[in-house]
Amino acid sequence: LLSISNQAGTSGWTWSGDVVSKVGAKIRKEGAFRLETLLWGGDEIVWAVPAWTGWWVLQKFFELYGRLGSGSRHEYDPADGKGTRLLTNSAAVIFCHHNAPIHRIISLAHKLTDKPKDIIRELRQPGDYCAYQALESFDHLGEDPNNARGKLVKPLRVGPEALLLRGEDMGAVHDAITALQAGLAKSRLHDVLALLYRDGDVAAGIAAGKKAIARADDDTPGTQDAFESLRSLSANAVPKVTQDLQGAIAWLHAGELWDYIRPITWQIGRASCRERV
């Protein structure tokens, strides 16, 4: 059902075929993007897409409706007596098995967007933030996902807000991780993550991470620059975080998103057996 498109400006993940409109008319679609709208009402949208396109879809959403692009952000007045303010966007993307219970996944997405909303209110500055979560099999985070995410980063003495990314940075995160994939062995990634998040030995994990990146950069120049880019994009919702702690969060981002961020030219056929929603 999916085909690669070489046309400029397309995602590379398109579908061609016949669809039936609401009035019953058959329409031929050529190069249509594969996306299902589960909800579009008021200020809320829920989409389902193949997992390997999820990051790209949300990135393009922020580029269109977020900070990027001239005049893309609009003002509104909710009539609460506080005057007009700039619109902001809070989002969550969940990577899960295609058979995962959809209502549970949507509920998790709602809860994950609460933390970006809190950050926007606390900072009192217009901005866009995104939370993401990768679920293996039918795992879920329980009734309080922020508590579960907080436990993950507890060894770093930061809260779950450290895991948020700015909407305008999603493209740069994509580029940094794909560059890391070209130079860093996944086994090295897992070794560093084990020290940081399984053993809770933050100092040893940070030291091992720096050594792993330096060795990778010797073989594949540019790996160090890619990691530094990802580090600079990490934990920006938390004030006064050290560069070492930013680096620890960057390792977590790389580990969580490694299987879900791919170059735009990645062949769909390689993922046909791993399709997720």
What does it look like?
- This protein has helices spanning 51-65, 102-123, 145-152, 170-183, 186-198, 202-219, 223-233, 243-257, and strands at 14-20, 26-33, 36-41, 44-48, 75-76, 85-86, 90-95, 129-134, 165-166.
- By secondary structure, it is an alpha+beta fold.
- A 3-stranded mixed beta sheet has the order 7-8-9. Strands 1-2 form a two-stranded antiparallel sheet.
- Helix 4 (170-183) runs antiparallel to helix 7 (223-233).
- The longest helix has 22 residues, at 102-123.
Low-confidence stretches: 1-11, 265-277
Share in β-strands: 15-25%
Helical fraction: 40-55%
Beta-strand segment tally: 9
Indicate the mean pLDDT.
80
| Structural class category | alpha+beta
Count every helix, treating DSSP H or I runs of 4 or more residues as helices: 8
Q: From the alpha-carbon coordinates, what is the Rg to the nearest angstrom? A: 20 Å
How do the helices and strands line up, and which of them pair or pack?
Elements: E1 14-20, E2 26-33, E3 36-41, E4 44-48, H1 51-65, E5 75-76, E6 85-86, E7 90-95, H2 102-123, E8 129-134, H3 145-152, E9 165-166, H4 170-183, H5 186-198, H6 202-219, H7 223-233, H8 243-257
Parallel strand pairs: 7-8
Antiparallel strand pairs: 1-2, 3-4, 5-6, 8-9
Write out key terms for the chains shown.
277 residues, alpha+beta, two-stranded antiparallel sheet, 16% strand, disordered N terminus, disordered C terminus
